[in-house]
């Protein structure tokens, strides 16, 4: 299998402990999956000395990432704008967008490798945003509602497990957990004015939803 060259992009602001949890899960997943070249790109969206300090200390102690690109925006910008900045500097063949309050399964990168080999023409791999196992009653209820077609209709598969490796459209994908080929992103893929749903706009505009695969 050819090594995957992957650029991970995370935008964050004043949630340092959630960010560390996210990075620790990536670290653990990388230990379980050798053979992936990983560039970590984190952009802090505004002045945030606490996050900057905690992130710098974490990076010093964790050397599994092949390259780390840490940027700090001098002013607050939309999520689309800061992600566009990091996309322009990403060097990987694939870009993995991940939210700072998410954390990944230990087998994530192995799943990505398997799907990349099984579906070599796919442009996008995306997975659901699942409810964490230690959620309280309200969080669990919200998760069940989001995962129900009665509530979110065609987008319900964003929030529940389904058949792995199935073809899907943009309605099943979510930017908190999304792999995209770098050459499909181009320059400034996300509209700067968008504060959410920019991935769905991008996928529809580029007409690449048919080449998407559910993780």
Task: Outline the structure in words.
- This protein has 215 residues and is α/β, with parallel strands linked by helices.
- The protein has a single domain (4-129, 162-214), classed as Spore Coat Polysaccharide Biosynthesis Protein SpsA, Chain A, CATH 3.90.550.
- It has eight helices and eight strands, in the order βαβαβαβαβααββααβ.
- It has helices at 16-32, 49-61, 79-89, 108-118, 137-146, 149-152, 182-185, 198-206; strands at 4-12, 36-44, 67-72, 94-98, 124-126, 167-168, 177-181, 212-214.
- It has an eight-stranded mixed β-sheet with strand order 3-2-1-4-7-5-8-6, sandwiched between helices.
- Helix 1 (16-32) packs parallel to helix 2.
- It is globular.
- The mean pLDDT is 87.
Short description:
This protein is α/β, with parallel strands linked by helices and 215 residues long. The protein is built from eight helices and eight strands; from the N terminus they run βαβαβαβαβααββααβ. Helices cover 37% and strands 20% of the residues.
Key terms:
8-stranded mixed β-sheet, 37% helix, 8 helices, single chain, 8 strands, Spore Coat Polysaccharide Biosynthesis Protein SpsA, Chain A, alpha/beta, 215 residues
Which class of secondary structure composition applies to the elements? alpha/beta
The number of strands is 8
Specify the CATH class: Alpha Beta
Please count the helical segments: 8
Strand share of the residues? 15-25%
Gap between N and C termini, in Å?
19 Å
CATH architectural name = Alpha-Beta Complex
The ordered H/E elements are EHEHEHEHEHHEEHHE
Largest sheet: 8 strands, mixed
Mean of pLDDT: 87
Q: For the largest beta sheet, what order do the strands appear in spatially?
A: 3-2-1-4-7-5-8-6
| Relevant CATH superfamily | Spore Coat Polysaccharide Biosynthesis Protein SpsA, Chain A
């Amino acid at each position: 299998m050819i090594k995957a060259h992957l650029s991970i992009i995370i935008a964050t602001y004043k949630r340092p402990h959630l960010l560390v949890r996210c990075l620790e899960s990536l670290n653990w997943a990388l230990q379980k999956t050798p053979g992936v070249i990983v560039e970590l790109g984190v952009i802090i969206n505004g002045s945030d000395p606490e996050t900057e300090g905690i992130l710098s200390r974490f990076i010093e102690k964790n050397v599994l990432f092949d390259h780390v690109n840490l940027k700090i925006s001098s002013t607050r910008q939309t999520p689309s704008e800061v992600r566009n900045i990091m996309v322009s500097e990403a060097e990987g063949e694939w870009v993995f967008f991940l939210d700072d309050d998410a954390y990944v399964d230990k087998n994530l990168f192995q799943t990505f490798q398997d799907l990349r080999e099984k579906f070599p023409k796919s442009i996008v791999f995306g997975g659901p945003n699942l409810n964490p196992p230690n959620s309280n009653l309200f969080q669990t209820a919200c998760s069940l509602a989001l995962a129900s077609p009665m509530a979110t209709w065609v987008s319900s598969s964003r929030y529940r497990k389904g058949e792995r490796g199935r073809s899907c459209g943009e309605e099943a994908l979510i930017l908190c957990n999304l792999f995209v080929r770098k050459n499909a992103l181009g320059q400034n893929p996300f509209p700067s004015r968008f504060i959410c749903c920019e991935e769905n706009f991008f996928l529809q505009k580029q007409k690449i939803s048919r080449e998407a695969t559910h993780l």
